[in-house]
Amino acid sequence: MKRKILFVALMLFATLCFAESLSQLRIVADDGTFLGTFESEYSSNSIYNRYGTYGSKYNSSSIFNKYGTYGSDYSQYSPFSQYSYNAPWLMDGYGNIYGRLSVNRYASGVTRTTYNLALQLKSMRDSM
């Protein structure tokens, strides 16, 4: 239930902050690895699909894997490391960049919106 509430709050927040619909954006690691989309929980590419590759807390390509390269609080490629300067990017299907998704507000490319989104996603990860 808590996950559903966080999902709804995240969708509302993103709708207000991004010109593109959040469901049209994708997360791409600084090393080029695709890390998922914000589509519905039924999409195989969605970070909201807890049984899919990108929403699982066990998959190595998931930002929700606390021990993985892309989800750890200590990895340079994770949006949840407060020391990372190589956190993933939010992009649309045309390659337009909407900012770096990071809880490190001082990293280049981080906007207020992407910082707040990263904080909400971290809260979601920690509630799993």
Give the structure's gist in a few sentences:
The chain has helices spanning 2-17, 112-126, and strands at 26-28, 34-37, 89-91, 97-100. With 128 residues, it is of the alpha+beta class.
Give a structural overview.
By secondary structure, the chain is an alpha+beta fold. It is built from 2 helices and 4 strands; from the N terminus they run H-E-E-E-E-H. A hairpin with a 5-residue loop joins strand 3 and strand 4. Helix 1 packs antiparallel against helix 2. The longest helix has 16 residues. The protein is globular and about 35 Å long.
Give a topology summary:
Blueprint: H1 2-17, E1 26-28, E2 34-37, E3 89-91, E4 97-100, H2 112-126
Antiparallel strand pairs: 1-2, 1-3, 3-4
Helix pairs in contact: 1-2
Question: What are the key terms here?
Answer:
globular, 4-stranded antiparallel sheet, alpha+beta, 128 residues
The share of residues in helices is 10-25%
- Strand numbers in spatial order across the main sheet: 2-1-3-4
Number of domains as seen in the coordinates: 1
Give start-end ranges of low-pLDDT stretches. none
Distance between the termini: 11 Å
Please tally the β strands and state the result.
4
Radius of gyration: 13 Å
Report the order of strands and helices: HEEEEH
Look at the structure and give the mean pLDDT.
88
Tell me about the largest β-sheet: 4 strands, antiparallel
Tell me the β content: 5-15%
Tell the overall outline. Answer: globular
Secondary structure category: alpha+beta
Number of helices: 2
